[in-house]
Amino acid sequence: MQVSLKWLSEYVDLRLTPEELAHRLTMAGLAVDSIVRTGGDWGADIRVAHVETVEPHPNADRLRLATVDVGGGERHRVVCGAPNLAVGQKIAFATVGARVRDGHSGKASVLKPAVIRGVESAGMVLSERELGLSEDHEGILVLPADAPLGKPLADLLGDVIFELSVTPNRADWLSVLGIAREVAALTGETVREPSLEYAEAGGPIKGRAEVDISAKDLCRRYIATVVTGIKLGPSPEWMQERLIALGQRPINNVVDVTNYVMLELGQPLHAFDYDQIAGHHIIVRRGGEGERFTTLDNEDRELSRDILVIADERGPVALAGVIGGLESEVTERTVNVLLESACFLGPNIRRTSVALKSRSEASARFEKGLPPELAMIASKRATKLLVEICGGKAAAGCVDVFPGKVRESRVEITRERLSRLLGIDPPASKVREVLTSLGFSARWVPPDRYVVRVPYWRPDVRIADDVAEEVARIIGYDEIPTKLLEGAIPPPIVQPLRELRERARDVLAAAGMYEVISYSMTTMEALERVIPKEDLAIYRPFRVLNPITSDHEYLRPTLRASLLQTL
């Protein structure tokens, strides 16, 4: 898991250095494996520039001449072959002496003056690949129109990326907001939740979409929303920058919104072309034996009853939680979108992704087990962004089928149990403060216990010991004093037979004999060499149901076979 500190700072104030924050997170159980500074090798020679003029190259059809202004009256004339270069753009410009990556080999080198097809070029207009941001070399990087002229690019786009090791029980850490909650608890800051409000200007959803779940054991919740009249195109620069920072490739504004919300909240989403869903009817069911389906990667896959599929009235349109279908994908012709936000059974999604060799960012999150409450929050967030970015109109309401409703989780822990597990007796006010900072609520019930309400995003907290662990993590393990064991050490239990056996071993070994330690399982052939067949017929050795190898198939009733094999 990667997290951008620039993105993280949108939800929580960061007052620590990256190194201090990494240490705090690691000590709390969220290991920071590495700290990567994006733009760390961008010097002051790479700045924001403005394209003033663009004209054809006199000696090359595919090249053009551009005049760029880098501020302070400094202008340069450069040769550029990018097809997306245009007058009025803000671009990333490297002057002579800057260190940039080669667009083809990817190797870094110092930019030197060049004469290209008879025209001198005093710098370079940079692509994402030349900056090391991504592998995109199809065109130059176009910056936001409000980017300050002459500003070093490192100040504008530079970021710090944490590479994190997330434990299997913490699905909430696979999101920027989840990590923001952790940072807030560790630093005493407050989390700023993303906005979910949007205008429902597209008319009622009733009668426009229908959802049925036949495999209720594999799908705990399915939410469908409809956004009409969208305009497909590239997503905003700020969204593309955040996706690229966390290793995602921008595709188009609709797909980028679903990926953005997945990274932001930890809930995978899928957007269907609404007009390609037969009957506008979503059916969540098991796959049919031998049923075939073509996925987004153009692979023809054979399904089975163990695979959960999203289907319409014609057939499958997606493999639940893993990958979408080719026929219902969002394309340049898409005008209306049906947005899926669901809660699928984690183990089933893992089995499907392994069986089909199709593991994705979405399946990795579903595998860990997501709370059904998150599906609604992510649905609202994504719908809001679709309306704002894609220019669509959201239908009023949503279709919400929720067969897997669960009651709010509460855990009780006594003060005595908490102090025994921690080795300290924290005041009740401190316990409540710590738990509240993590999103829990703790109520003191006299004479000696806490009743703790567990937030929806922490399904891993189930027993009293889990609550104690949360308190210890935030207080800090290094703040809990080390205590020596108290009380007398109990005397060892006397075992005469064991002591006799050990003494016999020592005496025999001292006399020059060898001790043989062999496997307790053997083969029938080895037993037949030392035991008469009539005895084997009466006292049949036990056969292991799942032997490691064919040489370890039967439990031995005698040591003689193993001794002969050793000799």
Strand-residue proportion? 15-25%
> What's the end-to-end separation, in Å?
55 Å
Helix/strand class: alpha+beta
Helix content: 25-40%
Large-scale geometry: globular
- Quickly give the CATH architecture of the largest domain: 3-Layer(bba) Sandwich
How would a textbook summarize the main sheet?
6 strands, antiparallel
Radius of gyration: 32 Å
How many separate domains?
5
Low-pLDDT segments, ≥5 res: none
Kindly report the CATH topology of the largest domain.
Answer: Phenylalanyl-tRNA Synthetase, Chain B, domain 3
CATH homologous superfamily (4th level) name of the largest domain = Phenylalanyl-trna Synthetase, Chain B, domain 3
The CATH class of the largest domain, by name, is Alpha Beta
